[in-house]
């Protein structure tokens, strides 16, 4: 039988405090107009503060370490949301939260309150090493190779103690995955680690040079296996490679994937190995001892117990415990909902854990069957029953200053038009080409854009089909057509009807057997305004 292992959360060091407090001085200069707007934006971005659409509105992104958050931290986050962001928080696609529509002059006060919760915003945006992803079910997933949570924590501690982590050529994303399904996005990261056992030892396959946005690329494999104790060397090696060879003149081609594109796979690997050797020869890092994880990675002796898995419920590998997935619409969670959740779960005992997902949701872990059923009933409005219901959209043009389309409105219209059916897939919608919703990874992905006809611009979406993520099979979706916004709903209606006509019970069956029919429907709507 398993014993639940309590993880040691990261506490704020003196260096982290000093890094965070630099924002205060820059904010004072900006408010006193001693610092120009574009100059302050360079600073504020590194602290997760961005201007939003609408006069005087800002967004702040606290850094929730690999999505791990305590009950006390959630209480504090809720209190901040009620005081400064109109009673709402936004759950992101990188296991963070965001406060929207806050005032610039309030940002330092919010940061001080976050520091009291052991939460920083430093490195949550800008040209920095961003939040390190880790699957929200790592440690409880019956199918995992081993729990990668401690590795993500150690990597984050390491990053926080490095110098010059917010002055890189562009953003630098790292991901850890505990299964072949790559739920930590390692195979599309600047640097990715996928758990792998070799000769009885835990370690990782290493990937690098991936990323999304314009010109997306799947990562290339850099190493078949490294011992788990070597991960910090890989992180520092890739950081030094990026600093030495990243483009600082043109931010549009400044990500690590452009170094890979320019050099080719072989030379890129050689360059990485060169930096790895330099790091290994000149630095010595003690990552600690992961031996206490050995028993935790074994399979439960009774995996098929109790209630069945659903789109929101998962049986854990710990006997008779469950995780419940909560998915508020568009990732927007009201502080009232959050308080209600905490009021209930805090009475369930100290073993309850909370993890933010990469799909704008929240997992409550280590629930008994009775507790699970109580929560499912109490939060039915945000407990999804199908994959289609868990579809995601970025904040879009309604909030984002660079968004072209309001993807949240489109997703709301889709959910209104169709019942929560398995005949439509999990959909990702991005308001622009920056791919904050990773639309090119979805079964169906939409990217906000414009169609032109007779010198007029019309709101539209690029439609991608067939994206997926998996260790040896990550695939960027194919752009089939650019479709006017007004025709998107009709396109989905035809796809829904096709599923009924072919008597397919779910999207995967329809796609596997009638891919050409699907593509014909999508292409048929292309370009028409």
Shape: globular
Mean pLDDT: 92
Query: Mind describing the biggest β-sheet?
Result: 5 strands, antiparallel
Number of strands: 21
Class of secondary structure makeup: alpha+beta
Biggest sheet, strands in spatial order? 1-2-5-4-14
| Rg on CA atoms, Å | 23 Å
CATH-derived architecture of the largest domain: 2-Layer Sandwich
Could you please describe the fold and organization of this structure?
With 529 residues, the protein is an alpha+beta fold. The chain has helices spanning 14-31, 37-46, 71-84, 107-116, 149-161, 231-245, 256-263, 265-282, 335-345, 369-378, 407-417, 485-501, 507-524, and strands at residues 49-51, 58-60, 68-69, 88-91, 97-102, 127-129, 167-172, 174-177, 191-198, 201-208, 220-227, 313-315, 322-326, 332-334, 353-356, 362-367, 392-393, 427-430, 444-453, 456-465, 478-484. The strands form five sheets. The protein has a five-stranded antiparallel sheet. A five-stranded antiparallel sheet has the order 3-15-16-13-12. Strands 17-18-19-20-21 form a five-stranded mixed sheet. Helix 5 (149-161) links the parallel strand 6 and strand 7. The relative contact order is 0.10.
